[in-house]
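Wed. Picked up where I left off yesterday with ER membrane protein complex subunit 2. The coffee machine is broken again, so keeping this brief.
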Amino acid sequence: MAAAAASAAAATAAEDGARLLRLEEQAGHGGGGAWEYLCLARRLRARRPEPVLRLGLALLNDSSARSRLASEQWTLYEQVAVAAMDCQRLDVAKDCIGVLSKQFPGSMRVGRLEALLFEAKGEWTDAERAYALILENNPFDQIVHKRKIAIAKAQGDMALAVEYLNKYLELYKQAAFCYEELILAQPTVPLYHLAYAEVLYTMGGLENLQTARKYYASTIQLTGGKNTRALFGVCLCSSAINQLTKGRNKEEESSELQSLAAEALLKDYKQRAPSKEALITSLLKNMKLS
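Structure written out below (tokens, as returned):
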């Protein structure tokens, strides 16, 4: 179902993706729009390191342009640092991180950038040490846990990568327990139901998926049917359950729920994003929900 989720995300971002490319060409030829492009690239999490590095550096090196950005310049320094590491411009990355470290001493976010720079240099021991320090302050930092897995794989130590992966998955179990407690304490807060459902969906497995669908459904009920994320969650869970059970799970109530969720989702897109209605219709059809 990760592929289905990715397809939905790609469908939703299709128009923005085309706009990103137009802005990239425009800004690259001196037509303006560099900051708009950088903001959009960041929002879409688009991996475009070369144009981001080129356009971002141009803004940072222009004192008047940098001054106009005010506090947003720090976000740009971070964006350029990451792009520079992708482009192996480690000197630029080091300079950007140095500026951020001076502005935000002791910041865990800057600490992650410093650890990434160690990774880019292949200095695995220093990177591990930096990540360990971050986890001492925040044991639930998912980004850091993912990076530790990546380091182990980069060094060819698959046994260690599996060990780190198991620890990472354990975080989801702990998160699930915490959301259970929150729901017991405040059962009418839809955000807790939604978060719990998404943790269970991520963990996977038939029982977790069935429970996740139940809590996506309770989110829909608590929000009067107005939570698009929960509607889509019901559809994703239903499709995943159907795949796992090979269609053997034919509960009438569940079948009705997935049909209603798919219908409500289509209606929601038709009203709020009509240009994407055909894409969602196609996606639901591929999931065998419409």
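Quick read: Residues 158-185 form the longest helix (28 residues).
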